[in-house]
Amino acid sequence: MTRTGGIAELTPLNRAREQRAWYWYDWANSAYVTTTAAVLFAPYLTSVAERSACGKPTDDGFTCSVDLSILGVQVSAGSLVFYLVTLSTIISALVLPVVGAIADRSARKTTLMAGFAWAGSLLAMSMFLVAGSDWQLGALLLVGATLCLGASLVVYDAILCEIAEPDERDRVSSRGWAMGYLGGGLLLAANFGLLTVMDDHTELAVRICLLSAGIWWAAFTIIPFRGVRNRPPANVVPEQGGLLKQSFGQLWTTLGDLQHYPVTLTFLVAYLFYNDGIQTVIYAASIFGEKQLGFEKATVLSAFLVVQFVGIGGALLFGRIAQRRGTRGTILVGLVIWVGVVVAAYFAPDGNFPLFLLLAAAIGLVLGGTQALSRSFYSQLIPRGREAEYFSLYQAAERGTSWVGTLVFGLVHQWTDSYRPALLALVVLFLLGLVLLARVDTRRGIEEAGNAVPAVV
């Protein structure tokens, strides 16, 4: 079996079989991303933190402050989750590039991906234990699960370059995202039913939902683990020493060589900005719906169901448009829609559920499309043999490991005691990403990276 251009020379039938197995990791981890990270855990941990900040009842009644004291620093309980995501990103900036460098040198990428997934799913299942005012345990589990998710996705995204030809990647990436929305949506629907049935025991129901997401993540990771074969590394940069020392050496070499790929660097910076906005919206949406607009937890969850199932069609639709009109232009259209959604959410009146559902549908339409196409577009711009390490830089802003948006959101909320101006501040991130992406010369970037140019760019 030979390799050309960093991609296994498989027959179309074998390649399609591996691609179908690869899709299932989107299905597996999306249950955690949707049920836990996006919908339930942020507002639940916020409530646990607020309960801790309120202290104990006194003779004068129940005295409550909304601040936590962390190492002597006063932190708003409502901003805690956003600061935790910021912390996760700072750690990710140090850890994920090394994970990527190790993966590029490993002959067991699929095994490595599954190992990180199962570690993250164990932490996700442990969130069931977060109760009362024990926000510290919840904070540790959230940071740990986020790091494991990011590490698994570094390897998962790099595998895309091995199982799909350049002309296939928009389609394969979009189908993976669509599978993720379907899987995440099905579990979310089941959890919606559980919350409805157990409306008198909401906290226990939420904890059971968190447990179910971890179990789902672990169980369905078995399919890609068994269905996507490990491959030997290709085009590895020679470095001295053991695997870890070689990985650090490759990391520094890649960071130094990044200046020779200016188009790739421009896209990466653009993605860091606009995906930062996307991830912050995902994290903030449930809190915004509950704490700002005044909806019940089950009501917000129903809106996320709309996002999930509209997202299936949105990911597939954007993938088809990209195959005909080009990937970069399709992403640009999606970013314009994102700006409109954020501005409309800022003006949304409290308690207006039909408008909240409409905004959820608009998010579903562009969410999967922009993210799936960004993944496949970036895969065309990275040099062969360094896929995992370059995707580790990409993952620094992916699925909740971004930090500028969450930090801004947390700070603006702490300063204004309102989520509305915090949400509006995110428009700047989308606009910066849009302007930078418009400057990307797709054909030049693909050629600079030494990759084959797809039929439509």
Automatic annotation (TrEMBL):
The chain crosses the membrane at residues 21-42, 80-103, 110-131, 137-156, 177-198, 204-225, 265-288, 300-319, 331-349, 355-378, 390-412, 418-438. PROSITE patterns: MFS. It is a multi-pass membrane protein. The keyword Cell membrane does not apply. Keywords: Membrane, Transmembrane, Transmembrane helix, Transport. Residues 263-457 form the Major facilitator superfamily (MFS) profile domain. Gene3D superfamilies: MFS general substrate transporter like domains (1.20.1250.20). The keyword Transport applies. InterPro entries: Atg22-like, ATG22/LtaA_families, MFS_dom, MFS_trans_sf. It is found in: Cell membrane. SUPFAM superfamilies: MFS general substrate transporter. This is MFS transporter.
